[in-house]
Amino acid sequence: MTVSTPELERVFRCVSGKPVAIIPNRIDTTEWTVGPRRSDDDYVIGYAGSPFHTPDLEMVAPALWNVLRRRPEARLRVLGCRPIAVPPRLAHRVSWGPWQPIASARQAVEALRCDVGIAPLVDTPFNRGRSNLKWLQFGALGIPIVAAALAPYDCIQDGYDGYLAADLEEWETRLVALAKYPSIRRNMGDAARFRVAHGYDLSLDREARERAYGKVLPPAPAQAAANPTEGDAETPEPCGSLPGCRANPRRRVLRTPNARNPQNLQRGPDSARRR
Questions:
Q1: What is the value of pTM for the model shown?
Q2: Is the pLDDT of residue 85 over 70?
Q3: What would the 3-class secondary structure string for the chain be?
């Protein structure tokens, strides 16, 4: 069995008692490419998610409204979610678009024409098993992202190729900082694009699958004759010995930089810390 996240690997290994391999989601960066630089005259926050993500958007809505109040140039564009209540004075700065099929996902995300993407997630067992797809999509387009400080976005090197936010105050602080400093969001978007292109491109998928399947599939006849012990499946660990088998395991959240201090806004890949 193959899954796309460590959280799913822990769950399915406990349930099945069989080997489970992690093959992360990837993206074709020859199709998802960086577009023309946007003007710094306005600041567009973009979000794309199915109607099932509406509760996630509602969770961060208070922070988004505060950002729009503090930054008159800010706008919010949402794709796919059901419309939520917007303060009347801000309604003209929020736009809603219908969800698009996966075949047109790239065109839909590009059409947001946003300066920063967001990836909020309510902390639930289901959401902990989600992947980092939104970071991959926005990052491939060279767009920085502010994401929930949960397991799906542990890949983000906080303050370098994206921001993590653990509460409403951090959501507001980081989005305001990216509005205030266009050069920082450009550098962060470039860093995200580099990491996605070199670590998550679709061209890497074949090698990962060959390694995973080679551990459990029997070798070809000629290879089996030469190496009779190779290709044996690994014996799975007992469920009780796995760290993910505890009920409702506590999440470790990455520490985010103080976005109010411009000197802390541009940090290298070694800057991520654990709380």
A1: 0.76
A2: yes
A3: CEECCHHHHHHHHHHHCCCCEECCCCECCCCCCCCCCCCCCCEEEEEECCHHHHHHHHHHHHHHHHHHHHCCCEEEEEECCCCCCCCHHHHHHEEEECCCCHHHHHHHHHHCCCCEEEECCCCCHHHHCCCCHHHHHHHHCCCCEEEECCHHHCCCCCCCCCEEECCHHHHHHHHHHHHHCHHHHHHHHHHHHHHHHHHCEHHHHHHHHHHHHHCCCCCCHHHHHHCCCCCCCCCCCCHHHCHHHCCCCCCCCEECCCCCCHHHCCCCCCCCEEC
Tens of pLDDT, residues 122-168: 999 999 999 999 999 999 999 999 999 999 999 999 999 999 999 99
Q: What is the pLDDT of residue 222?
A: 59
